[in-house]
Amino acid sequence: MAINWKTYPARGVYDTLLAAPGEVRPVASSLCDYLASLSEKEVRDRRAAADLAIRNLGITFTVYSEEGGSIDRAWPFDIIPRVIARNEWTRVERGLRQRVEALNLFIDDIYHDQRIVKDKVFPAELLADSKNFRPQCIGATPAHGIWAHICGSDLVRDKDGTIYVLEDNLRVPSGVSYMLENRLVMKRVFPELFANSTILPVDDYPSQLFDCLSSLSPRRGRRPEVVVLTPGIHNSAYFEHAYLAQQMGAELCLGSDLVVGDDDCVYKKAITGLERVDVIYRRIDDLFLDPEAFDSGSVIGVKGLFRAWRNGKVGLANAPGAGVADDKVVYAFVPDMIRYYLDEDAILPNVPTYKCVDRKERDYVLANLAKLVVKPANESGGYGMLIGPQGSAKDIEDFARHIRRDPRNYIAQPLITLSTAPTLVDDHVEPRHVDLRPFILSSKSTYVTTGGLTRVALRKGSTVVNSSQGGGSKDTWIVDHEAS
Amino acid sequence: MLSGHAESIYWLGRYVERAEDGARLANVHANLLLDLPRKYTFGWAPLIAITGYSDLFAEHYKEATERNVVRFLIADEKNPGSILSSLAFARENARLLRDLLPREAWEQINELYLRARQDAGNSLAQGRRYDYLEAVIRGAQQLSGTLAGTMAHDYPYDFLRLGLAIERADMTTRIIDVRSANLLDGSARSQDGPSDLAPFETIQWMSVLRSLSGYQVYRQTVRGPVSHADVLRFLLTDTRFPRSIGFCLAQMDTLLRRLPRSSTISRDIQKLVDELEHVDFDRLDRQALHRYTDELQVGFGRLHDRIAATYFLNGPATTTGAPAT
Predict the structure, then answer these.
(1) Under an 8 A CB cutoff, do B4 and A58 touch?
(2) CB contact burial A318-329 (16+ within 10 A = b; e otherwise)
(3) Which residue, B182, B84, B86, is CA-closest to B124?
(4) A254 neighbourhood in chain B, CB within 8 Å
(5) How far is residue A359's CA from residue A364's CA, in Å, rounded to a whole number?
(6) Nearest C-alpha in A relative to B309
(7) Among candidates A58, A233, A268 on the partner chain, residue whose Cβ is nearest the Cβ of B96
């Protein structure tokens, strides 16, 4: 017996599978019993089988290096799934729908009447210096009034088990291909588990995505021509761009494959000549999308694309400018938006957030810097962040100065201790911190993935889940344990 | 089909074929050296001229020793025409095509390159070189099989095969050229007179046929002795043997007829075929053969430019093509 749940140190932090050492949560009981019944050799064999499947399926992420060109690394994967009960997930799903609906209403409002600003629910000065606000988008009317068609929201559980939304990614969120591939790997490695329990399927995402994109076509009554626009093979998510194109039967294009005509329509350069494109799932950031409208130095974009979109000749997902709601300070206002637009309370809470732009909250932050995590509005990837409990006196002094100088750019949150999940380390299991990124598709209707991508910090004690920095992933099971 | 994809998959075909044929070229040369009496050996230098990279070689190496030439042709990534570079370019093109290629094909290309790079040291050791080159040839063959058996036989596959065919035709002329550059038709006499070399003539043409996996087919279709004129006629005009130039041109013609806007390219191919039919193989001596293979290579270059101008994003891209000698 290789895995002994009695010695698993589930203490102090919420663990997704165990309530305490030896005390398996009901939703995970058949999984944990099964894992405990495997011999050491069986565990090793399953792990080897998973590694082989990942290699054979060609699941990779790209790391670019100067000498070697782009290198595809095998995707780090842990074979012990993360389990969530169906009834809990139903509530999370409702919360996500509510949240994304409000976010889309907010973006549409910001680019039209700005009622939320006029009604003083959202401060005008935040908008004025938001890096992702695109004045070019004012007055645009994308199909269905939807701007963020694909949203990836990061969820975390605190040590008491409460699920919080940590951030919403509304620009070009990635990771969904790994969610799909992880399931494929698990079915190969543990077919018997799928036969014996009710694990909800995840595989319809590509067809849902295709339907969502198709509904943005400006031309009715014909099969829309959908393409995926990628920055190219050196992008770290290139695997995903190719994967989704392949799964949807759409063509994967570089900017150089597309051209905007004098009629403002977008065409792809095909061997037969130019062919019109109806919808572009773009995986290029706003600023590089079109040298005519945004960064004139962009070589990966398509000249005139923005004009084509503004004039309703092509559908773009996500719409340019959708990132205005993808900002750590705007995030703090999401519960207010939900109340303002939907007249509801947020089902999923934000991590408690102090906005430094508010005088009272700023005073609290400045007095409690040593206890808080301070984040700038627009940097991602952990740069320019203060983790108070780990910061030196000098760091804290520096941040106090930054905040006083530019309060709009900062928010502060209490330090969240991410929940853990049992993870295979050599021949035994240890707790490792995890988060969860579900994906929400919005067009005529809304779709939420069943679960999402569970990312795991593979280094002991680490809470950094990014694959470029020692993170891996797990399959995520939404289990109906009352049904089986 | 996107022009960009057509271009990438055509180049994928060319590069995979170039790696395979590069391996065949090195094999035929090594065998030739083994067959010849020591006093006639001419070393490895002519191979560099045949591949068209003499200047580049001179930039990086002082002497055309066996080790240097072999390294340059097989494992040197500074040489864009080396086997390893060809596989690296094939892989980069395949990466652009990941949405189009069957998964297992991408895996095979990736593995083929990674293994070739990892084992590159073996190509320098005389005793292991054959195995190394064979592994490259087999890997390329396996890939063709996977693609034939799993890809939709549609435009993308047609462009892949177009790339394979034009590269193969070009490389077959180069492999024939190895034989013509130094060898022993009536005009290449040693100081002891021509007579003692006659016995090797047959053996050497056999080794050219073998390097193209064409010996068996030659025996079956020609049904005569292995002679200079017959082998050339077979390798240049036979329409049943897949590595002969006649076959490659016929295949390109068939593929192009399925593609839109191909009539001018088809006419160019017909011109090359007509020329081939008028060659008098019995009178083709060493120098004439060398000149003629050069002419063919220039013809293939023009064909490529025409294809690029008709279908690709970037138009004729001669810098990435095989330079003519």
Answers:
(1) no
(2) bbbbbbbbbbbb
(3) B84
(4) 4, 96
(5) 9
(6) A271
(7) A233
Give how many domains chain A has, as a whole number.
1
Residues of A in Cβ contact (< 8 Å) with B106: 58
Identify all chain A residues contacting B155, using CB atoms and an 8 Å cutoff: 271
pLDDT digits (tens, 9 = 90+) for A437-470: 999 999 999 999 999 999 999 988 888 787 767 7
What is the residue range of A386's domain? 354-414
CA distance A90 to A85: 9
Residue A386 CB neighbour total at 10 angstroms: 23
- Rounded CA gap, B233 and B241, in Å? 12
Contact A56 B259 (CB under 8 A): no
- Tokens 């090594």 map to which residue? B30
| Exposure string over B52-83, b if 16+ CB within 10 A, otherwise e | ebeebbeeebeebeeebbbbbbbbbeebbbbb
Best of B9, B93, B95, B151 to disrupt the A interface (most A CBs within 10 Å) is B95
**Which of B1, B2, B10 has the most A C-beta neighbours within 10 Å, making it the best mutation to test the interface with A?**
B2
Count CB-CB contacts under 10 A for residue A39.
Answer: 11
Long-range pairs for A23-28: beta carbons < 8 A, 24 or more residues apart: A25/A83, A26/A481, A27/A83, A27/A84, A27/A85, A27/A479, A27/A481, A28/A83, A28/A479
pLDDT at B103: 83
The CATH number of the domain where A397 resides is what?
A: 3.30.1490.270
Q: Is A381 on the interface with B (CB under 8 A)?
A: no
Chain centroid to Cα A183, Å, comes to: 18
Say if A388 falls within a structural domain: yes
ipTM: 0.76
Task: Using CA atoms of A186, A192, A193, A194 in order, give the dihedral in degrees to the nearest 10.
Answer: 70
Interface membership of B261 toward A (CB under 8 Å): yes
Which token pair is A6?
């009695």
d(CA A164, CA A158): 8
Amino acid B196: pLDDT: 55
Does some domain include residue A72?
no
Q: Structure pTM?
A: 0.85
Q: What pLDDT shows up at residue B195?
A: 45
Q: What is the pLDDT of residue B198?
A: 64
**Helix locations, A61-111, DSSP H:** 86-110
Domain boundaries, chain B: 3-311
Cα separation, B179 vs B264, in Å, equals: 34
Residue B185 scores a pLDDT above 70: no
Q: Which two tokens stand for residue B32?
A: 């030739």
DSSP state letter for A319: P
Alpha carbon of residue B268 to chain centroid: 21
When pLDDT is averaged across residues B177-195 and rounded to a whole number, the result is: 52
Closest CA in chain B for residue A267: B2
